[in-house]
Amino acid sequence: MAAAAQEPVIDCDNAMAQFELNACAYKDYERADAAMNAQWKVTAARMKERDRELDRSTDNRPGFFDTLLAAQRAWLTYRDQHCASEGYAMRGGSAEPMVISGCQTQLTEARTAQLKSLIEEY
């Protein structure tokens, strides 16, 4: 019974059916999302370190981490809504999930690079 419930193994290098293409595009997105989450942990930790270095007697603006967190939350909303909009090019079609996942992968990879660049030394 458990073997029947397992998902079929899909060869993404040779995917041809739309359900395979959709699944492979989603796997790419999951990989990109995992990389971004790993970079988020590093970047967030560095921003918290920078906050500890702030002289609050002369600077009462929001800290590095608070602004990063607000930006990330806004970015997640932007990514998901933008990619849903891009997916509407195939609205209701079997390729819509692939278009959405591809968009999410592209934007997530770009965001990972942005998060990394925030903590690079000048």
UniProtKB/TrEMBL annotation:
Pfam families reported for this sequence: LprI (PF07007)
Residues annotated as domain Lysozyme inhibitor LprI-like N-terminal: 12-115
InterPro entries associated with the record: LprI-like_N
Protein's UniProt name: Urease
Organism expressing this protein natively: Sphingopyxis macrogoltabida
Species classification: Bacteria, Pseudomonadati, Pseudomonadota, Alphaproteobacteria, Sphingomonadales
